[in-house]
Amino acid sequence: MWSVFKNALLLLAPLLPFNPDSQTAHLDKNATYRGPLADGGAWIDAFQRARAIVRNMTIEEKVNLTTAVLGPCQANSGGVPRLGIPGLCFNDGPAGPRYTDFVTQWPSAFTAAASFDRDLIEERAVRIGKEFRGKGINVELGPVTGGPLGRSPYAGRNWEAFTPDPYLSSTMSFLTVRGMQSSGLITCAKHYILYEQEPICTGPLDGEGGRTDCIDISSEVDDKTMKELYLPSFAETIRAGTGAIMCSYNRINGTPACQSNDAMNRLLKDELGFQGFVLSDFGATHSTVPSALNGMDMELPGEYFYGQRLLKAMRKGEIPQSRLDDMVHRILTPWFASKQYTDYPAINYQKYDLADKKEINGHVFRNEHVNNKGDNYLFARKVAAESTVLLKNSGVLPLKSIRRIGVFGTDADYPHTLSGCGPDLFCLVASDRRYWNGTVTIGGGSGAAYADYVAAPLEAITLRARQNGIRVDHVLHDDPAHFDAIGWVAYQSEVCLVFVSVFLVEGWDRQHLRLDKGGEELIKRVEGSCSGEVVVVLHTGGQVLIEDWINLPKIGAVLFAGYPGQETGNAIVDVLWGDVNPSAKLPFTMGKSATDWPTGNIVREMGQKSDPYPRAFFSEGLAIDYKWFDKWDIEPRYEFGFGLSYTTFEMSGFSIAENYQPVSDTIQPTNERYEGKADLYDVLYVARVNVTNTGKVAGAEVAQLYMTFPSSEVEQPPKHLRGYNKPYLEPGQTQTVDFPLRKKDLSVWDVEKQHWRIPKRIFTFCAGNSSRSLPLHLETQIRESALLVI
Ligand SMILES: *[C@@H]1O[C@H](CO)[C@@H](O)[C@H](O)[C@H]1NC(C)=O
Ligand SMILES: *[C@@H]1O[C@H](CO)[C@@H](O)[C@H](O)[C@H]1NC(C)=O
Ligand SMILES: *[C@@H]1O[C@H](CO)[C@@H](O)[C@H](O)[C@H]1NC(C)=O
Ligand SMILES: *[C@@H]1O[C@H](CO)[C@@H](O)[C@H](O)[C@H]1NC(C)=O
Ligand SMILES: *[C@@H]1O[C@H](CO)[C@@H](O)[C@H](O)[C@H]1NC(C)=O
Ligand SMILES: *[C@@H]1O[C@H](CO)[C@@H](O)[C@H](O)[C@H]1NC(C)=O
């Protein structure tokens, strides 16, 4: 809860209500079940080192490791100086190291997801990981791997995660954890789990524009939906070896996530075999004993329920010694496994403060301004350009021999506020954090990253115009007072570029799916006057309704650029002028009307008076995003997987065949139960399709594979993404692409037998270039290879 915890977290501590009764009030019904003690799994050597050293620790030292202490980072955990174990430094977040300088503000995860490009996603992660390492951060509080997943378009934090599709999210979560940890950093996959909306807040704004009187939502979900939709991305982060996982603010079927035996002990540690540690989101701990017994291993960012209270509970025998040892084993095992004890950089920054030196309570913290960015600005620009989705194009793009461009909208400009933007170039308007002034490159809250600079669209367009002898006029206002000036400039422009946005912030779900600051009116005004065609650039953190203007006669092109990070302007110029041929696809569905989505899937009010908390019933089950649109036959404006190019492609020669390949990328195995002999992550089949560039310019196309389960599986929506592959092709070139299908990709969770199984009977597979453009079909039965079942 960024708004509450931003500055004076430690000062707030005594104000938090503490009611010992509430510790037992929310205990799981199945309170007898206790999670497994860690055994290290594939990190057996690291685990043994951890165990050896824990044997020599006092109880105070063990508790110290599980609890936050004062430090320079966003959060610091305690260490054991006597045994040479340092405390750990924790810092946000998914789009780059937040709160410090000489770092890159990367395109956000949901923006990068639009690239549908596995190599790009992994390299982005490797580069982000090295920036964290350079600052001496031990644990990155990221990536967001499915909490939220994106159940509702109204959720305020969807832009921090990849996509509502569990296959796309899973594959990207795996690559991101593996890439980020490759430099020795420890990742913290978050927010576990079913965190699909923000709390309900009924109080007035606090002095800083944050929210007050907030109450967490209970996410009410069934077993099958949990296993098939919300859990898979977390399973992949465990397979990829994430050292930490963050439990979330919400309740799960009534129990706070950070004391849910079912979520942490049963699913995460037993079924998924997680060997690392679970740490609490900031303020998400509600108890001492239930949290410890039900699987929470560390409390951050202050000492409320762990620390002295945990020590007291240990002394009273309320928590077994074996469980405290387990907590410490889990914290130290990833630290040993990542070899951070060898040559890891020391902490060399201080959160919020970019000055060289700061003193807190007699401790002096220094910022050494370590610069580990290398050429990341170039790669961030590439990610942003490769993730820009071309939604509409009359042929106006790429821009050709034009002489006069008009640029419109505050979103084309640098971020500004009357009071200055502060050290993070964070330009929130006045005292209300929901509003932003200037180009939107990232959202607010813990998913934000500091930018060292922002290459504003207007600046990049101007530099490009200088090279090409183009005149650029602009009106950088959105308000009706400037509509006359906007009309006049538009009238003189051959091409009108309109920049509009939606700024999203942690703590606030969306009230509607429209643009900020009357963006629709701005677009219509420009369209009404422009001499030539209008190109609209959308900088939004999710779905927007565009029916007001999409079919107006002069709307020539629309680009969905998401939250592209600091290189925003350069990336959009690359696409506008065709230096980069757009190849991104929407990683979610854009509907035509708010009623296209299930109504009320964001809870905005308390329910029954008798309920102590509001409940969100996940009654749509597996059918979120395109699966909902498919199931109810709703025509979207732009479907999941859609995106145009400056060239054209054709697909042919679709086939599928048995092709057993044992799993080779698992770093930590899970304990998931399944039928048959093959491992759940073994590849059983491979589908193939030929992609040909039939146009005149080179470009990349995302070939997509969708699967329909046999009709016996009545809970299943019509189709599921099960493969994507992005070949880059010269004009006339053909390439065969593979879609490996793992056993889990072909399986359903059997709620009666409590295991994964492959349905018998006929599956349908389709290939094409979006979830609604699938010209190639085939049908087949799926079975485990005869060779394998000896
Ligand atoms: C409690 O959990 C254990 C382990 O999953 C299970 O075997 C047992 O049946 C559960 N008991 C109840 C009452 O749900
Ligand atoms: C634990 O303490 C014993 C006795 O002082 C010592 O021999 C041993 O090396 C210590 N182990 C570790 C891992 O520090
Ligand atoms: C707890 O951790 C802090 C920070 O590493 C350290 O200064 C302190 O000495 C530790 N306490 C004990 C009991 O080891
Ligand atoms: C927004 O930025 C513009 C400059 O582009 C500035 O004139 C205006 O005062 C800013 N508004 C606020 C509320 O800070
Ligand atoms: C996508 O596939 C459809 C046929 O299914 C085709 O008409 C369309 O041109 C393709 N799009 C691109 C950009 O090649
Ligand atoms: C796919 O393309 C390759 C050339 O890249 C060609 O050899 C092959 O015959 C094609 N397969 C089908 C089924 O069309």
Automatic annotation (TrEMBL):
Its main location: secreted. It catalyses: Hydrolysis of terminal, non-reducing beta-D-glucosyl residues with release of beta-D-glucose. One of its GO terms (biological process) is glucan catabolic process. One of its GO terms (cellular component) is extracellular region. InterPro entries: Cellulose_deg_GH3 (IPR050288), Fn3-like (IPR026891), GH (IPR017853), Glyco_hydro_3_C (IPR002772), Glyco_hydro_3_C_sf (IPR036881), Glyco_hydro_3_N (IPR001764), Glyco_hydro_3_N_sf (IPR036962), Ig-like_fold (IPR013783). It is found in: Secreted. Its EC number is 3.2.1.21. Belongs to the glycosyl hydrolase 3 family. Beta-glucosidases are one of a number of cellulolytic enzymes involved in the degradation of cellulosic biomass. Catalyzes the last step releasing glucose from the inhibitory cellobiose. This is Probable beta-glucosidase G. It comes from Kwoniella shandongensis.
